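User: tokens in, sequence out, please.
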């Protein structure tokens, strides 16, 4: 039995995580869920956006399934974190978002984003099947910024050999494990010769230990151009934190958008699986949300814990429902609600 910390999230989060849980339970996977609340609801009830109970649960499970959480734009966002301890005091820490806060607090150093075409999902492309490995712990994206004066702000881009080696080894090991054969390293070393230069050289050095994986490199702007011209030619992408954030959303657009793209954040002994789309408060509670990204994130989680058979069955059932186009959500061109779409997948699981 695998214990899972389930974080419903904000907006449509409870609906899409609820759908994923129903499907996971129907798959026969051996899972035991612990509900933990972060974000706006947690702050209202505990005074902390990340209460101690969340960390206590994750300490037990080391496995998280997370719905989308609210992220404000601009300003100096400070997350109220309550770590377990004798006094359980609440400490305010600067993080750009709750998702980033969890990644940092839990030491989740790699963001994994598979990008795959599914039947009857509206898109300009077909036969896209690639995976993005994004370094999660440093670079500009961590938000190390300051105001120099009222009219000038700066951010620090920091790249280290250790963090680059760590994510590179993860990427190459993953490629070997799943039978993929080519990684493209994205960089801007032609201009940022020290930071991106260190990133590129270190990743290439790690690659020498994996002669069975083909390695090439692209300047990041050229990579983006090629991705929208011939995405089917790419297999694995290894990217720094900021480039990875941008390119992973670009690639989600190649297969239908963030609503159909899963995500995972993985560390040495803990992993968090989450839909990467927003909270969509305008449709929350209206049975309109597409839970596909959350379902596919659950499939990633099953593969991570060794429940490959259940993962394959859910993926096949989802593909069948999409292929038949009888019970799909409005964003995919159908008229089904969240619950009907979920139930259609459950019925396929039962009949297969």
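Assistant: Sequence out:
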């Amino acid at each position: 039995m695998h214990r899972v910390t389930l974080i419903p999230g904000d907006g449509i989060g409870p609906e899409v995580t609820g759908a994923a849980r129903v499907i996971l339970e129907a798959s026969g996977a051996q899972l035991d869920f612990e509900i933990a609340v972060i974000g706006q609801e947690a702050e209202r009830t505990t005074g902390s956006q990340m209460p101690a109970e969340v960390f206590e649960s994750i300490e037990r499970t080391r496995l998280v399934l997370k719905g989308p959480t609210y992220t404000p734009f601009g300003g100096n966002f400070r997350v109220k974190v309550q770590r377990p301890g004798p006094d359980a005091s609440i400490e305010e820490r600067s993080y750009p978002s709750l998702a980033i806060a969890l990644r940092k607090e839990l030491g989740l150093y790699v963001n994994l984003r598979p990008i795959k075409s599914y039947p009857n999902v509206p898109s300009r492309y077909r036969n896209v099947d690639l995976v993005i490995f994004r370094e999660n712990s440093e670079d500009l994206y961590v938000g190390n910024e300051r105001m120099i004066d009222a009219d000038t702000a700066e951010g620090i881009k920091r790249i280290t050999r250790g963090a680059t080696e760590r994510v590179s080894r993860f990427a190459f090991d993953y490629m070997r494990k799943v039978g993929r054969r080519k990684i493209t390293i994205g960089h801007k070393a032609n201009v940022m010769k020290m930071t991106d230069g260190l990133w590129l050289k270190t990743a290439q050095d790690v690659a020498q230990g994996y002669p069975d994986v083909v390695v090439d490199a692209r300047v990041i702007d050229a990579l983006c151009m090629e991705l929208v011209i011939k995405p089917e030619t790419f297999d694995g992408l290894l990217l720094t934190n900021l480039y990875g954030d941008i390119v992973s959303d670009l690639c989600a657009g190649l297969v239908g958008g963030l609503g159909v793209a899963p995500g995972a954040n993985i560390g040495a002994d803990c992993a968090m699986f989450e839909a990467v789309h927003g909270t969509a408060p305008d449709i929350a509670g209206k049975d309109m949300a597409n839970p596909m990204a959350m379902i596919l994130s659950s499939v990633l989680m099953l593969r991570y814990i060794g429940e490959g058979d259940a993962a394959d069955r859910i993926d096949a059932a989802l593909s069948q429902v999409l292929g038949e186009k009888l019970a799909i959500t409005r964003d995919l061109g159908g008229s089904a609600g969240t619950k009907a779409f979920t139930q259609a997948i459950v019925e396929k699981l039962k009949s297969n």
